[in-house]
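Q: What would this complex look like in 3D?
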Amino acid sequence: MIIDGKQIAASLKAEVAQKVSEASAKRGRTPKLTVILVGEDPASQVYVRNKAKACEAVGIENETIFMSAETTESELLDTIARLNADPSVDGILVQLPVPRHINESKVIEAIAKDKDVDGFHPLNVAGLWQKTPHMAPCTPKGIMKLLSAAGVDPKGKRAVVIGRSKIVGLPVAKMLLDANATVTLCHTRTVDLPSVTRGAEILVVAAGVPKMVTGDMVSDGVVVIDVGMDRDPETGKLCGDVDFDTVAPKASAITPVPGGVGPMTIACLMENTLECFLAHFDGLGNL
Ligand code: NAD
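A: Here is my prediction, written as structure tokens for the whole assembly.
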């Protein structure tokens, strides 16, 4: 079975659109997301455009603040402080990466916890690990929703995650653990990766290495979530961390690239913006 991330994301967005419309009527205003882009990185420009488009599709008001690559750290922090104080702004997202002269951690910490739609603020990260109310990071949240939509309950299953980044690998491992899977987290120092991945019933790959997981590394019936967004070195085309052609025949379910995790990430961003909006009226405890 191919897990159709596009279609699952479309139904989540339809659900969010419905809730946005109801919540806006009840509260007398529309949720608003402000995205900040510093610099002219072409990939980042595409990402912020897609976020604006998704907002329009679900009825979330949105603005993108374009700042030059020469913007200083204090100018960016001032802009964030202004948005934190603006009651009409529910969600703030700074498109990463920021230029090298700006300290990324400072930027992430500057965004108010209850406007942090990305779920990267240390207090939101702590909330995930301590099971207290928090904004969940979009990609890991999307992965859990894809599993659920595919009818996969992680409870009691052996889950293997490749990659321990702060934005994908680590949080998704925690979410799988909270869903009662037994989780193994792999990284570049893992010895004999294939022997670990062959034991997986659920395999989440977030390494950023094109087609690194091949058919001989998985067992029959595995559920595979490919988070990778890479370029095939031979064709230059977008591909994942999983060699789809050799892994798919053995998998009971698998996400394609493109059309898997990517669309879910943006749908979850819309859901997070709605949650921030609701939290501004009802309090963070209701997240
Ligand atoms: P990262 O570079 O921050 O982390 C990669 C992790 O993979 C590291 O922990 C590293 O130890 C591990 N790793 C790398 N090579 C490995 C190997 N050969 N064996 C075992 N472990 C290895 O990357 P990231 O930000 O987590 O992103 C991972 C991939 O997911 C990238 O392709 C990225 O583009 C993609 N991504 C997609 C989305 C989406 O919405 N679809 C969102 C975020 C990231």
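A: To summarize the key features: The two ends are 33 Å apart (CA to CA). The beta strands are 32-38, 61-67, 91-94, 158-162, 182-186, 202-205, 223-226, 230-231, 238-239, 253-254.
Q: Very helpful, thank you.
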